[in-house]
Write a structure and sequence with these properties.
globular; 6 helices; 6 strands
């Protein structure tokens, strides 16, 4: 019986001291193509693998404490180094249909996510902060554009970590502010032929 080789633990990445070359960047992943949250989760896994700490705030992806509709969170909750902050109201109806629109509870939950993001930018211990679907929350009336740019103002005061924003839509001033912008553009999607969202693939 052969012995398995032990994988050496990797040291935690230490950000540069004040006054050194800036290494932390602001990313945006946006568009109507599939893959934004998948990208965010993949980046979180990569960061943890490099010894970094990750905070992930999800907007409009509610969790009632019992029914979990986002399969990746079953794993993320078990990973040391990932701090998960899901926000949002339930959108999956008992009959399997999806509720659209922004109701007062949706807006309140988005504001809760915004406050979590502000606190993490000011005092969090993370090396990577991901604000998943914050741009969708802005596009669909749960947050204002000023809320998003206010977070960037706070980030620029002290770039203590890498910052990632995702969602459907961007605007010119936002693109100017950040350091990386990637568009997920839908070229073809099986939804159009009637294939529904599938557990483990879409959620």
């Amino acid at each position: 019986m052969t012995k398995r080789k032990r994988t050496p633990s990797r040291p935690r990445v230490i950000p540069p001291a004040h006054g050194e070359e800036r290494v932390h960047q602001a990313h945006v992943y946006y568009g109507y193509g599939k893959g934004k949250t998948t990208c965010c989760v993949g980046l979180a896994i990569r960061a943890v693998g490099a010894g970094m700490k990750v905070a992930l705030v999800q907007f409009d992806k509610g969790y009632d404490g019992e029914t979990e509709h986002y399969s990746e969170r079953h794993v993320l909750r078990r990973i040391d180094g990932v701090e998960l902050h899901p926000t949002g109201c339930e959108r999956m109806m008992p009959d399997g249909t999806f509720r659209f629109g922004a109701e007062p509870g949706d807006i309140e939950e988005a504001r809760r996510g915004l406050e979590s993001a502000r606190l993490l930018l000011r005092k969090g211990a993370q090396d990577l902060l991901i604000l998943d679907e914050i741009l969708a929350a802005s596009a669909y009336g749960m947050l204002r554009r000023q809320d998003v740019t206010g977070l960037l103002d706070l980030y620029d005061e002290n770039r203590r970590c890498e910052l990632v924003l995702s969602g459907h839509k961007v605007w010119d001033a936002l693109v100017e502010r950040v350091d990386l912008v990637t568009e997920m553009r839908k070229v073809k999607h099986y939804y159009a032929s009637g294939v529904p969202a599938r557990e483990g693939i879409e959620f």
